[in-house]
Amino acid sequence: MALQYLLQSSLRACLFFAWGASSLCYADTPIVSDANRSTVAVELIAVGRLPGDSMDLTGLTGTLETGTPEDQLGGFSAIEYSGSGDRYFVLSDRGPGDGAASFSCRLHEFDLALDFQNKSLRPTLIRSVLLKSANGESLSGSLTAVSLKPGAKESLALDSEGLRLFDDKTWIISDEYGPAIHLFGRDGVRTERWELPSSFRLCASPDMPNAIGTYPNRGMEGLAISSDRSKFIGAMQGPLVQDGIVEGDKCLGLYTRWLVMNRETAGRDKSHAQWVYPLTDESTGVSEVLAVDAERYLVLERDSRSGVDAKFKRIYLADTKGATDVTQVSRLGRTELPSGVRTITKTLLIDLLDERFGLGGEKVAEKPEGLCWGPTLADGRRLLLVCVDNDFETERQSEFYAFAIRF
Fold first, then answer.
1. Domains of the chain (ranges, CATH numbers)
2. What's the pTM?
3. For residue range 135-149, what is the model confidence (pLDDT) as tens digits?
4. Contact predicate 347/31, CB 8 Å
5. What contacts 344, CB < 8 A, 6 or more positions away?
6. Selection from 164, 166, 168 nearest residue 223 by Cα
7. Which of 176-185, 209-218, 281-290, 306-315 reaches the highest mean pLDDT?
């Protein structure tokens, strides 16, 4: 559904950036509090916006099958802080048309200049990087590229969803098509591709009896690196086929799996741990996961509605302490878990639809998709950035939300 522009016309005319501001939004009461944790308070500092018809810096000049310019900027599925200044990396997903376009996959470098005093966030595009195979071929978001061609050494299909810095020279990206995990150099060339355990692989016929694997378009959306950087967390958007029930064009279930990979062996050893994350209901899915400390993570969980129809856009504080390793549990059950299985626990941190933040009503974006920490603020609070996917629709703006959080 169309998202009205909130910028003045002079800002909409800007090619590479626009910005918006929000009044201070303090919680009247603590957002999170329990007997064992410090109270958590949240403030929305600012909102930054880009017009939906903005262009990127790839230099591409063609037109896609959907009629979209090849260099249209949008589809932001993940965000990661560079570790320096105001510089961030922002990942585009598979492109317009849900896989119908031969979109060349890419990520971008932005300066997200936060003016705390004036409560403004100004996104400025610095660079766009095309993602390519080890042979230098462009990776494509098209569904037709998913299958390996005869004689091909590697798939050229990529549905890029999660983004983190593996180290100062390498990006790590989760791929919903595989599902798989890819490593890329700063030049955009893929250096490694990690296959996931067979029970996570894309299920070609999910409605068949005893089928297992990832239901199409419900794969690995979230990607985190633990606070001590010893492990990677890959969070599935929805239940695996074996953990739910297929009805119509949906796989329904209340439990998703997180794959926990040891950093040192992730590319070689597939005997990873698995944790269970409980969805709030069957209409929601996980879009992102972000480490807070040794045991806690932020989880972005949402429905797939926009505007006044949107009901659920939330960020939870999830605690993995005591969660059962369910690697040996072949089927979780749609609504009830096997005896003895303990899930990740979660507490609401931010309701993006809370009227105090001013993000609700007709202008609600369908897809808040990415989370990352920015530099610590001068008052000691942590800066949380949220990026919003506009699906490359020109009438929808791409958005960034800046929150300050004190744990």
1. 9-406 (2.115.10)
2. 0.89
3. 999 999 998 887 655
4. no
5. 258, 275, 276, 277, 278, 318, 319, 320, 323
6. 164
7. 281-290
